[in-house]
C-alpha cells in the first residue's frame, strides 16, 4: 500500500476504507506495507483472505504496474495482508502537486504531458493485465493508484494499480451480477452502467478516461456539481466533462472514447495501451520553431514560437 508521504520502517504508510497501513521491512532488502483489518468476524476474515489468496492472487503479482502482495494471514482479532510499499504517494497527490498536464505548447507543458502519458501508460498496462485474466478492478481512481520511487524512471516513480476491494471476476459475457445497492465504485469515476449495478471491463475504461481528464486538467471531476446531480446525469447519459483548452487533441480524443456512454463504443485496454504509445512517440517528435514571417534578416524576433509537427496524428483505435 502507500500514502501521500514516504513510508518508513514501523511508521504509518497510509490506509483505506477497511484497513490501516504501516511501513515495514520484508526480508533483507524489500520494503513492505502491512495492511491491518480490525474487523475480526469469521465472515470478514474469510472474505478478505479468499480474495487475497484466490481471485486477486492470480493477477500476476510480478507485474510492474500492479501492486505486489507478499503474504496474508488471519488472526483471532486482526487480519493482515503484507504488500509492496509504494513510497511516493498516490496519483491523486501527484495531480494536486501539478505534476501532469495535457498541453504541448511550451517545453514545460510537454515535460508535464510526457509525465502524464508515462503514468497513464503504466496504469493502462496494469489494467490490461487484469482484464486479460478476466478481472475487473471496479474502483479505478487516482487515490487507488500508488506511486513507487524509481530512480531509473524519468518521472522518478512508477505508477501501480492497487486496492482490489471491489475487484470481481467477469462472467463469460463480461458482465457481473448487480451488487447490493445501485452504485459500484466511486461516484465521479464510476461508469453509467455501474450506476445500475452492472460492472463490465469497459467500466474500468470509463474510469480511466475520467482519470485521464483529471491528469490533464489538474481538477477534480464534477467538483462544482451536487452528488445527486452527478448521479442523475450519469444515469441518464447526459453528463460529460469539458476538456480544458490546449489539451493535445489525440489525448482528448482518447479520453472522449474512453468515456463514451455506450460501453460497447469504448476501446479496450489493449487499444488504449497502443494509442498511448503512439501519442508518446508523436510527442517526442514535436518541437518549437519561430514563425517564418517573424524572422527578419537581423535574426529571430521576440515573437512567440509555434509548434512544428513532424508526423501526422496517430489513428487512435
TrEMBL record:
GO molecular function: ATP binding; protein serine/threonine kinase activity
Pfam family of the protein (one): PK_Tyr_Ser-Thr
Species annotation: Chlamydomonas euryale
Protein name in the entry: Protein kinase domain-containing protein
Protein kinase domain mapped to chain residues: 7-283
Amino acid at each position: 500500500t502507500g500514502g501521500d508521504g514516504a513510508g518508513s520502517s514501523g511508521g504509518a504508510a497510509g490506509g483505506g476504507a477497511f484497513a490501516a497501513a504501516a511501513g515495514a521491512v520484508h526480508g533483507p532488502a524489500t520494503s513492505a506495507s502491512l495492511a491491518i483489518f480490525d474487523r475480526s468476524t469469521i465472515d470478514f476474515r474469510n472474505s478478505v483472505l479468499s480474495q487475497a489468496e484466490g481471485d486477486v492472487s492470480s493477477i500476476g503479482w510480478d507485474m510492474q504496474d500492479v501492486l505486489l502482495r507478499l503474504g496474508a494471514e488471519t488472526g483471532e482479532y486482526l487480519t493482515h495482508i503484507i504488500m509492496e510499499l509504494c513510497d511516493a504517494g498516490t496519483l491523486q497527490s501527484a495531480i494536486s502537486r501539478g505534476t501532469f498536464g495535457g498541453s504541448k505548447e511550451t517545453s514545460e507543458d510537454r515535460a508535464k504531458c510526457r509525465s502524464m502519458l508515462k503514468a497513464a501508460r503504466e496504469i493502462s498496462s496494469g489494467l490490461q493485465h487484469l482484464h486479460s485474466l478476466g478481472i475487473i478492478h471496479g474502483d479505478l481512481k487516482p487515490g487507488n493508484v500508488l506511486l513507487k520511487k524509481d530512480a531509473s524512471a524519468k518521472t522518478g516513480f512508477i505508477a501501480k494499480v492497487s486496492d482490489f476491494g471491489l475487484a470481481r471476476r467477469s462472467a463469460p459475457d463480461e458482465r457481473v451480477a448487480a451488487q447490493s445497492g445501485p452504485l459500484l465504485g466511486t461516484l465521479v469515476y464510476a461508469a453509467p452502467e455501474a450506476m445500475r449495478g452492472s460492472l463490465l471491463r469497459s467500466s474500468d475504461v470509463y474510469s480511466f478516461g475520467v482519470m485521464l481528464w483529471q491528469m490533464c486538467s489538474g481538477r477534480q471531476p464534477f467538483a462544482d456539481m451536487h452528488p445527486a446531480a452527478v448521479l442523475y446525469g450519469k444515469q441518464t447519459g447526459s453528463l460529460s466533462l469539458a476538456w480544458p483548452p490546449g489539451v493535445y487533441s489525440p489525448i482528448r480524443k482518447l479520453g472522449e472514447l474512453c468515456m463514451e456512454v455506450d460501453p460497447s463504443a469504448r476501446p479496450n485496454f489493449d487499444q488504449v495501451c497502443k494509442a498511448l504509445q503512439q501519442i508518446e512517440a508523436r510527442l517526442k517528435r514535436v518541437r518549437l520553431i519561430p514563425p517564418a514571417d517573424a524572422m527578419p534578416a537581423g535574426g529571430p524576433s521576440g515573437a512567440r514560437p509555434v509548434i512544428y509537427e513532424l508526423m501526422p496524428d496517430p489513428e487512435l483505435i
